[in-house]
Specification:
Blueprint: H1 8-20, H2 42-49, H3 53-60, H4 70-79, H5 84-94, H6 110-117, E1 123-127, E2 133-136, H7 138-143, H8 157-168, H9 178-195, H10 200-212, H11 214-220, E3 232-237, E4 241-252, E5 257-263, H12 269-280, E6 287-288
Helix pairs in contact: 2-3, 2-4, 4-5, 8-9, 10-11
Length: 289
């Protein structure tokens, strides 16, 4: 295992964004009505992290001469009340986490392809680290769209959510949680860019979305990296109407992919709607792109 290089500028921006969201009372400090600094002061974070103010300031300003130690990062994470996901992101930006090399994996394991074929009552897709739909079963194609008819770049759910829907004003697949999905997509892409900083497909996608979507650009500047899990979702389908499904996401860590399953409780109207979609769909083999 090896570590990556430190991204000084992004590390500083991330620290600043986490510091500014905290109020003194959040960390047990007294607040003053004359306080003009948004969030905590840098010296307050340094005291809480048990490091020098000068060193913390250099970190935020991207001027640190050397990579901070794991102990220093742990102290900063505690001081800033970071979640586990945010702490992991902090270590990655500082270059102390195990680094990935190469490109985002887009080839799906044959066993996963076989698995989703054996789920006739469940819509299943496999997504990459950048939310590209890599594989799907027939029911997913019926519920969402026929991904086989799309070029690989057109199968990216983040691109669809921010660029395609911006053009036609319609929520992605008529989903009920479109705003939440867009936020989740931004967080996932930020994490992906940290893990694959040299993959031109990742950097190109982020730049395309920042340039093409003011909404994406605004959310990107928040530097959030952890989303609440989506447990249920409602699709509005032109043929069968509303389909309310349970959402289960299973990580495939060896390839940094996710298996997403959409199912409905047995005997429910949505289960009947999925069964009807199974009848209406045009049969097609599971595809991998």
């Amino acid at each position: 295992m090896h570590t990556g290089s430190m991204d000084k500028q992004e590390l500083g921006a991330f620290l600043r964004s986490r510091r500014e969201r905290l109020q003194p009372q959040d960390v047990g400090l007294a607040s003053s009505p004359r306080r003009r600094t948004p969030g905590l002061r840098r010296e307050e974070v340094a005291v809480l992290a048990h490091i020098s103010t000068e060193y913390y300031v250099r970190l935020e300003q991207g001027r640190a001469a050397s990579r901070p130690s794991g102990e220093v990062l742990a102290g900063i994470a505690r001081a800033l009340r970071l979640t586990d996901a945010e702490s992991d992101h902090l270590h990655t930006l500082a270059g102390t986490a195990a680094a990935r090399t190469g490109l985002v994996q887009r080839e799906v394991r044959p066993s996963i392809l076989a698995l989703i074929e054996r789920l006739p009552e469940t819509a299943a897709i496999v997504t990459s680290a950048t939310l590209e739909v890599l594989a799907w079963n027939d029911l997913a194609a019926a519920l969402m769209e026929d991904f086989a008819q799309l070029a690989p770049e057109e199968r990216n759910l983040a691109r669809k959510a921010f660029l395609r829907t911006a053009r036609n004003d319609a929520p992605l697949y008529g989903i009920s949680d479109a705003a939440e999905f867009r936020l989740h997509a931004v967080m996932q892409l930020r994490s992906a860019l940290t893990r694959y900083p040299t993959d031109p497909a990742v950097t190109g996608l982020v730049n395309e979305l920042r340039d093409g979507s003011p909404d994406f650009a605004r959310l990107w500047e928040r530097r959030d990296v952890q989303a609440a899990p989506t447990l249920t979702k409602t699709f509005t389908h032109p043929a069968v109407g509303q389909v309310c499904v349970d959402c289960d996401g299973l990580a495939l860590p060896d390839r940094d992919q996710n298996l997403v399953l959409y199912s409905a409780p047995k005997g429910s109207p949505s289960a009947d709607a999925l069964a009807l979609l199974n009848i209406l769909r045009v049969p097609a083999r599971t595809k991998s792109g």
